[in-house]
Amino acid sequence: MTTMNGLERVRLGKSNLDITRVGIGTAPIGSSPNWHVYWGPQDEQTAIKAIRKAVDIGVNWIDTAPFYGWGRAETIVGKAIQGRRDQVFIFTKCGTLPDGKEGDIEDNSAPTIKREIGESLRRLQTGHVDLLQIHDPDPRIPIEESWKAVHELVREGKVRYAGLSNHPADLAKRAMRIGPVVSNQLEYNPLERKIEKELLPFCRGNGIGVLGWGSLAEGFLTDNFDLDKLDPNDFRRRHKYGQPENFSRIMKVRNVFSRIAAAHRGTMVDTVIAWELAQPGITGAIIGIRNEKEAEQMVGGLNMRLSRQELDAIDTSMQNTE
């Protein structure tokens, strides 16, 4: 564990990457009307400034994917890191493609993985990525084939380390027989804790770093979140968290986080991030940002320490929220 620029860094799995406890999430900045996970309007220059602000603060990794806006997020990242490539680790993904019907499909075949990394490197304007993650399992392609392809890219120098995303323990075990699995990116936040039962202990026991996505529950666990003020086509209007039957349960969790935040003179975002990073086995939390203000807010919870009593109160509020 090291500290640089005032931000604590931890080792990601069995790599030699020392990463800050929070990383820049780029799904929201990939927002565009032709992508079905639309987050509302996103200005490119505002997004570039957000990324640069986070890097200036000391955050040293960016998580992106071809899927985010079908290349838009990677293109924005590529512009934002010009002249700053040595200050930041770039993590991207492969395997999720448009299905031609405004949705997506998985294709983790070796030819697709190799083609996609070339496209990603061009958009990112870099010669290598620090971590390549298979975005989601593909039931049609054996993980062994996919994992061999990723490790060939490691040997070629286009990728430094190989990671998984959203993969269960059985697939991770099979991949480990082929080559090292540095990390697994998994959904994790106070409303989504399923990985605590099996997957998180498995990763801890095998030295696999865990990068939590959806850390702020797509914005539902942020200060001043208002579903009614979102763009009419924002995907979160259709999200399960936004449905009436879930509203009261989510408000209960929000209220507890707000109360604890006030006691620490912090924000709900600070407190949610502090909670997540207090959980054993979580290496880093991915925080989606869209502007400079959100970039500044992503580090506010790093020095917040929650008491046992506060953690217990949060646990109680979360009961039956899934």
Q: In CATH, what is the class?
A: Alpha Beta
CATH topology name: TIM Barrel
Supply the CATH architecture: Alpha-Beta Barrel
Helix content: 25-40%
Record the SSE blueprint.
Layout: E1 2-4, E2 7-11, E3 18-20, E4 22-25, H1 44-57, E5 61-63, H2 72-80, E6 89-94, E7 96-98, E8 104-106, H3 110-124, E9 129-134, H4 143-156, E10 159-165, H5 169-178, E11 183-187, H6 199-205, E12 209-213, H7 244-263, H8 268-277, E13 284-288, H9 292-297, H10 308-318
Parallel strand pairs: 4-5, 4-13, 5-6, 6-9, 9-10, 10-11, 11-12, 12-13
Antiparallel strand pairs: 1-2, 2-3, 7-8
Helix pairs in contact: 1-2, 2-3, 3-4, 4-5, 7-8, 7-10
Summarize the structure.
The chain has 322 residues and is of the alpha/beta class.
Report what the structure shows.
The chain is of the alpha/beta class and 322 residues long. It has one domain: Alpha-Beta Barrel (TIM Barrel), CATH 3.20.20.100. Helix content is 36%, strand content 18%. The chain contains ten helices and 13 strands. The protein has an eight-stranded parallel β-barrel with strand order 4-5-6-9-10-11-12-13, surrounded by five helices. The protein has a three-stranded antiparallel sheet with strand order 1-2-3, with no helix packed on it. A two-stranded antiparallel ribbon has the order 7-8. Strand 5, helix 2 and strand 6 form a beta-alpha-beta unit. The mean pLDDT is 95.
